[in-house]
Write a structure and sequence with these properties.
alpha/beta; Rossmann fold; 12 helices
């Protein structure tokens, strides 16, 4: 059904939306550390397979995103799935900090969120965390609320985390636009009545958000 009124809340993901592309960042990290990138990809495919999603309690990614296991535990599990190009094991201690150190801020998207809030649009960060430390400088100017999966014990695409974010913003799902770089999360938001925007780059996302909100954002 076509919207008859403009939405007035914007929910955005962090990794891959407020940062530059994740695939490039992770590959750069692997190259810097001499990690066999194919082993990393195999681990991700295994842990994110449909069969594993049915047993979320034993899925390391689901567990770290909900805050159910510690960062060192997850790092050990991830490192055990990988090896260096020379065949040696990957050092697990500090693995995630080194990986997230390769993530570059997408300044244009961050500035867009600030402009949206300046137009009176309610804003929220909705992010699945791997126990990482977020660069929170400037967030007071960007967001009305911040929902981090590991801090609330929920993760995207679970509907409860979207509902929690709406409750904190005091808005209905139908009044929200959600931006994420993963289609499964955008689909989940759409099933709750949100307008979903699959992020593939600043220009297309900014144009779509201007269309939805009816205000200049680019």
């Amino acid at each position: 059904m076509q919207r008859t009124t403009s939405p007035y809340a914007l929910l955005v993901d962090w990794g891959g939306v407020l940062t530059e592309r994740l695939d490039l960042a992770v590959r750069a990290w692997a190259e810097k550390e001499g990690i066999d990138f194919e082993h990393y990809r195999q681990a991700m495919r295994s842990w994110l397979s449909p069969e594993e999603q049915l047993e979320a309690e034993i899925n390391p990614i689901h567990a770290i995103e909900r805050g159910e296991i510690t960062v060192p535990d997850f790092e050990e599990k991830l490192a055990a799935q990988m090896q260096l190009l020379d065949g040696h094991p990957v050092q697990s201690e500090g693995l995630l900090a080194r990986m997230f150190g390769s993530f570059a801020t997408a300044h244009a998207m961050n500035a867009l969120v600030v402009r949206a809030r300046g137009h009176g649009i309610k804003t929220a960060l909705l992010s699945n965390s791997w126990g990482n430390t977020y660069p929170r400088d400037g967030w007071d100017d960007m967001f009305d609320t911040v929902v981090i999966s590991g801090e609330v014990g929920l993760r995207k695409p679970e509907p409860e985390i979207f509902k929690l974010t709406c409750e904190r913003l005091e808005v209905a799902a139908a009044d929200c636009v959600f931006v994420d770089d993963l289609e499964i999360n955008v689909t989940a938001a759409g099933e709750l009545g949100m307008a979903g925007v699959l992020h593939r780059g600043y220009d297309t996302t900014a144009a779509r958000l201007e269309e939805l909100f009816g205000v200049p954002l680019a």
